[in-house]
Design brief:
The chain has 299 residues and is mainly β. Helices cover 2% and strands 48% of the residues. It has two domains: 8-20 and 222-295, Immunoglobulin-like (Sandwich), CATH 2.60.40; 45-205, Jelly Rolls (Sandwich). Bound molecules: calcium ion (2 copies). Residues 64-65, 90-91, 200 line the site of one calcium ion.
């Protein structure tokens, strides 16, 4: 259901006196003894291939790749070489193909996301050996499809993984332009004949609903001649946690609207000024000016 946020954030009043703003071949029998020696391992299981999926998830969503956390995850062996993503010891791993560069997606379950919210993505990454540097990227699309993902939103651009203890890579500013189900794909893009690329602790954190909060300050001359034209200046400041896309500013004199102006985008922390003019009554001795701001964005 859509909600309309109409927030009368603030009103400013002034009195003017007249005149006065993230291949398995055999089991490990030994760890490599030299940095350039490779030992293939038998993985616990492979991710299912293809579009068979189960359900959807909602942020905050985490996956540590234990057996009870794998529903909805799939692999896409985009280069069709039967070398792809597997699970081993509650981690996801892409093991090298000696002839082909990696082109393999590990795709999350569908995640229900909302426009107007900012999500934070984290994933832990490491290489088997610093001698064999791996490479990955992370993308998001509205379909769990290699082409869609390739053309999708980049969450993390091409990143070299040449470290052997887990490091977290992240993007704390993940947004979508429309409400819907999105898939996040971890794309192994290591060169041919590297070693193993490890992934763990996939996280997509949600965020609290946005707080819309606009403040307004009004300024006018302290005094003016009766029957003269004065300029009123209103400064609107976004004091919320959300980049506003629309709001209106209303000026009043003695409680009556004298001007209504429309504001555009206003980033968190930013300010914008609006002015209008008013001709004072020739026979009045004072006038009370007011200005108010209201958010007009619809979610
Ligand atoms: Ca794990
Ligand atoms: Ca492959």
């Amino acid at each position: 259901m859509k909600k309309i946020y109409m927030i009368l954030a603030a009103m400013a009043l002034l009195t003017l006196s007249l005149n006065a703003q993230l291949k398995a071949k055999k089991k490990v029998v030994a760890q490599p003894t030299a940095t350039t020696e490779k030992v293939d391992i038998k993985f616990d299981r492979y991710f299912p291939s293809g579009p068979v999926r189960a359900g959807e998830v909602t942020p905050p969503y985490t996956c540590g790749f234990s057996s009870d956390e794998l529903d909805g995850w799939i692999l896409i062996d985009a280069n069709g070489d039967n070398t792809s993503w597997s699970v081993s010891s509650e981690q996801a791993v892409y093991q090298y193909n000696s002839s082909n560069a990696a082109n393999d997606w590990l795709v999350s379950p569908g995640i229900r996301l909302q426009a107007g919210k900012t999500y934070k993505f984290y994933v832990d990454t490491k290489a088997e050996s610093s001698y064999f540097a791996e490479r990955l990227e992370v993308k998001m699309a509205s379909a769990a499809d290699a082409t869609e993902l390739s053309n999708g939103t980049t969450i993390i651009g091409s990143t070299v993984v040449d470290y052997t203890t887990y490091q977290t890579i992240s993007n704390e500013n993940v947004t979508v332009s429309a409400d819907g189900i999105y898939y996040i794909g971890i794309h192994a893009i290591s060169d041919a004949d590297k070693y193993r690329l490890w992934i763990d602790n996939f996280v997509l954190d949600g965020e609290a609903d946005p707080v819309h909060d606009l403040s307004i300050a009004l300024s006018a001359p302290a005094t003016a001649g009766a029957g003269s034209t004065v300029t009123l200046t209103a400064t609107v400041t976004n004091t919320g946690n959300y980049d506003e896309s629309g709001y209106t500013v209303n000026f009043t004199a003695n409680g009556t609207t004298i001007a209504t102006q429309t504001g555009g985008t206003l980033a968190q922390g930013a300010s914008a000024t609006f002015t209008t003019t008013y001709t004072t009554d020739a026979n009045a001795s004072s006038v009370n000016f007011g200005a108010s701001v209201a958010c007009t964005e619809v979610h």
